[in-house]
Amino acid sequence: MEFNRISLLQAFDELGRSAWAEGATIEIAVYGGSALMLVYDWRIATKDVDGVYEKDRDRVRRLAGRIADAHGWPADWLNDGVKGFLSARDQETGMQVLLDEFPSSDEPGLRVFVPRPEYLFAMKCRAMRLGGVDENRDIDDIRQLAAEIGLTHVDEAIALVASFYPNAQLQPKVQFGLEEIFSQIANNSGSKP
Questions:
Q1: Percent share of the chain, pLDDT over 90
Q2: Handedness of CA 7, 12, 17, 21 (dihedral sign)
Q3: Which residues pair with 110 in a beta bridge?
Q4: What's the CA gap between 152 and 75, in Å, rounded?
Q5: Angle at CA 112, nearest 5°, toward 120 and 70?
Q6: 16: closest CA among 55, 57, 67?
Q7: Radius of gyration over every alpha carbon of the chain, rounded to an integer in angstroms
Q8: For residue 172, is the peptide bond before it cis, meaning its omega torsion is within 30 degrees of 0?
């Protein structure tokens, strides 16, 4: 199962309606491929929704489970496994921006937040999956986010990642992966990485 932008918005609408019917307004910060798909038109699908919903964990899990059962989706279509990749800066003012309220701003059963693109870039780099750079979805997301942010050199990228995650948390694969990505970007544009 994969979500596209429309099906994910419909799932959020259903979750928001369910919460509003219970007299609640829940808040979810969405990360990863789901956030990219909701904000940018270059990411067209995601397999699950990586979110953080600490204040309303039991309610969100119960309502998301009910929605999964109704649609035959995997029980973990909405999961909080991304918590292990959050930066200590996650709670700083301005790290998250409100994307939308569901079903509406008049009946906000669900508020969905997404991180700034710089934070998404750093998270994607830190979580970079091993594998071929040419066929890896994380790598494509990193390339696209670098273009959105305006990063053109590997040193800029490493400094940005380090601003969210201390160097002690950065694995060698991040530096090597970024060097390879920016080398390919430079080769495609005819400039130096």
A1: 67
A2: positive
A3: 26, 102
A4: 40
A5: 115
A6: 67
A7: 18
A8: no
Question: Residues 8, 121, 14, CA angle at the centre, nearest 5°?
Answer: 15
Tokens of 68: 């999964």
Q: So what's the pLDDT on residue 116?
A: 95
Single-letter amino acid, residue 79: N
The confidence score (pLDDT) of residue 110 equals: 98
Say yes or no to pLDDT of 136 above 80: no
pLDDT tens column, 41-84: 888 888 899 999 989 999 999 999 999 999 999 999 999 999 98
Residue whose token pair is 């780099």: 125
Structure token digits, residue 63: 């309502």
Q: Which residue has the higher pLDDT, 189 or 89?
A: 89
Structure tokens at 99: 């994307």
Please give the Cα distance from 150 to 189 (Å, whole number).
14
Q: State both tokens at 122.
A: 């750093």
Of 74, 161, 79, 94, nearest to 124 (Cα)?
A: 161
User: Where would I find the beta strands (DSSP E) of 1-107?
Assistant: 26-31, 49-52, 78-79, 96-103
Beta bridge partners of 174: none
- Nearest-CA neighbor of 26 among 35, 14, 36, 38? 14
